[in-house]
Specification:
- This protein is mainly beta and 366 residues long.
- The chain has a single domain, classed as Porin, CATH 2.40.160.
- It starts with a helix and ends with a strand.
Length: 366
Amino acid sequence: MFRPNVLFVPLGVALALDLTPPRLSALPQFTAEYKQSCQLCHQNPTGGGMRTLYGAQFFSYMELPVKSLEDFTKLEDIQPKLSKNIQIGADFRSMFFTMTRDTNAATFFTMEDNLYLAFMPTERATLYLGSLSYQQEVFLLLQGLPMSGALRVGQFVPAYGWRFEDHKSFVRDMLGFSPQSHNRIAPDNGVEFGFYPMEWEASLALTNGAGVTMFDSNDDKTITTRAIGRFSVSSLNLTAGGSYRYAELGRARPALRYFGPFIGANWSGFTYLGETDWMVSGSSALVASHLVSYRIQRGINVSTQYDFYDPDLDVKSGSSTRWRLSSELYLTGYLELIPAYEINEDKTPIATRRYGTGELQLHFWF
């Protein structure tokens, strides 16, 4: 059963940080910190995947690492473009993972091994291919439309809420947007149109709603929409938005609806990201993720995250929670080390199970 006083403890902490006496990967922390659109650093206007030249060169090497490049001219040696019209990219994550549950377990795990290729015949058209471990995005992106508009057609992850970096974040995992979700619904085939200026965004996607299948087996379709606004109050950077998803599932099953707000705030080195979603399909469920991070110094961040999930708000069906403590160490412009520890709790009407997990993750990107 949903417990409001438990769910919004992290929100209260974040608001307290915002009111005490500026800085905030695709990380949504960066769009909240710099009050800028994800497309500044990513080919995908909604974030994630291949980086732009600005993201791969300047941002990765001048903003992220503990020690930035002292010689600006060396950025020319970091060249993801194979030619004027072809660009490559990559994301690789290797992790040592431990779990204490019924039995102790420890293993090495390749979490991500993504290669990206973008063919740009003109400044306004990009054919994008993301060859991923658990999902593949292949789409044609048309940009340069009025009001920073863009159209993408093909197979992609529809824009919904915050695209948290950690795939285990409940708002990605429980909703099916994580590449490793048991009920994975993304990427999906269809079309998405949006406007992406720096101060705000709005997008609307019409897709099959069936996840990665070659053919849709029925006439049912899914609509996913998201809107974001960015503004500042003195030295406080704020981001606020909302998402809605309506999926037809056939006559024998009720339609599935997701909807909820998400917010971000950055002040004096502190960053807060929060999202709460309701899932309605016959019964009603609730899922939320809240992240607070602090930049200790350039290239070193510490973060804590709280996730909550109640599969049925109307009955005592149980709930799941997760606390995560991690640090992000940007060693160079292409290498990140992430130590983390999590405490998970699964409640049912008859029992409660708690277990901890630890991980050491190495992230390489280009």
